[in-house]
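Figure caption, in words: inputs first, then the predicted bound structure.
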Amino acid sequence: MFRSHTCGELRLQNAGKHVTLAGWVQTVRKFGAITFVDLRDRYGITQLVFNEHLNNQLGEQPLGREFVLQIKGTVKERSNKNSVIDTGEIEIDITEFTILNKSAVPPFTIQDDTDGGDDIRMKYRFLDLRRNAVKKNLELRYAVNRSARNYLHENHFMDIETPFLIKSTPEGARDFVVPSRMNQGQFYALPQSPQTFKQLLMVSGYDRYYQIVKCFRDEDLRADRQPEFTQIDCEMSFVEQEDILNMFEELIKRIFLDVKGIHYTDAVERMSWENAMWQYGNDKPDIRFGMKICTLKKPTSVFTEKTDHAGLIADANFVVFDSAETVLAIAVPGGAAYTRKQLDELTEWVKRPQIGMKGLAYIRYNEDGSLKSSIDKFYSEDRLKLIADASGAQKGDIIMILAGTEERTRKATSELRLELGEQLGLRKKDEFKLLWVLDFPLFEYSEDDNRWVARHHPFTSPKPDQIKTMIENNPVIEDASNYLSHPYAQIKANAYDMVLNGNEIGGGSIRIYQRELQEKMFAALGMSEEESVHKFGFLLGAFEYGAPPHGGIAFGFDRLCSILGGSESIRDFIAFPKNNSGRDVMLDAPSSIEETQLKELQIMLRGEK
Ligand code: ASP
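Bound structure (aspartic acid present):
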């Protein structure tokens, strides 16, 4: 028996017990003739005492950090207790020890506040994983995994594996491809998600499917994305949107309860995509705080919502607002007290290239009810008051106003809102707010490709009352500059996203399940009949054999874990993540392969950069 107990297990009531422990040497401290060693394993740290006799042996075989040690000894009460660790009331009086393995000096300290930078920790990820901070994240990940599995199992979902070597799935990203040796010149694609398989499983009658599964997308790695990531992927038959929303908000609530001990009793809020864009400037609003956007001016766009405030800024000869497509405002609580310096900093902030605004106008709504503004040359105090009221400002607030082209201004205002929310401490890590965003547009128009693209994916169905619009209209657009007037621009999807604290944690849709409509969809996306049969003949074929109405959702498992763990980074919750260039620096992958392998695959490198 290597060990009788773990290093996190022994307590005062075990005093007098003879035990065997095994673990890693965390620290060695010599005090005259006695040596103290902290022994660490996955479960904790236990203090060992090497008495005078054993100390001499240690002189011959010195212990270093991260040595693997087995000890035998007796549990005894500690005189100098440590209340920080669970085993802090005891120590082990060693009678025997065996060095099971030596260790080179680790390149960074195995501690919460390690001295190792990101790169070195990734290179030696197996050592980084020994650190408590990382271990806690993986434990949380496992807890989320268990909780999800339990809930889904209790609700009759069946975990069914789907293949990784497949044909391309259209999830909107580039595929990773794998050359086939047995079928030379041909390639598999790695799944961007199991989308078509889970739909086929519905056709096969497995009416509740789930999988905690890897997905692969060859995207440029914007902040905090991984080329391979994990989804909790689910699909159900004989359901409408409402059934899915209920089933899966309960899943997330269950995870809150199991993993964080949080009873999420509030009803999950629901918001249309249009309202989300309108009031928060993006489709995944953080609703932990208010500061909704007030539209003072906007062009004709995909948003049908009207603004009643357009008149407030008109006819004042203020060229910045007059010439702008869009003017948006937010009221910042307590902001009237901002100093000149703070406002200058915020102005610089919105001018950064990532935000891309030309400037920031503001109106102080002072506690005494007076209004002072950076634009009071153009607007009387009465007008400023009307703008303040429209934006929902209270005395003591400041109203910030951005102007520019629609998309950029909406995005910038949304970013500014989040930044101010952060600065004001309104985005609390331990507060969780769920939101369903609904009624997304089914199509987006790609001006680059001059065609419609599916906003979610091509298997998403339109709202039932809009199927007719889809079937009866020709998707082809004569005048691309006027695509908004095409009936397709107004079709809404039977799709839903779940948002948690401003992050999209899941998304899905009710699917198309009739061949005719699916064909129409492919055609709308500019696919010829031939192409759609070549790419999705299997699915179209399956729809001819009694496909049930079905729908599903997939949650971003890594992201969900990172939010529950209070971290910005999904990497912290993945045992062996890739860096921002998609590299595994520990394995040094990707890497070149042997000439013989290339030959076998009939692949010749083109030698181009
Ligand atoms: N397969 C979709 C995705 O990965 C999710 C779904 O529609 O169920 O986004």
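The first strand starts at residue 18 and ends at 31.
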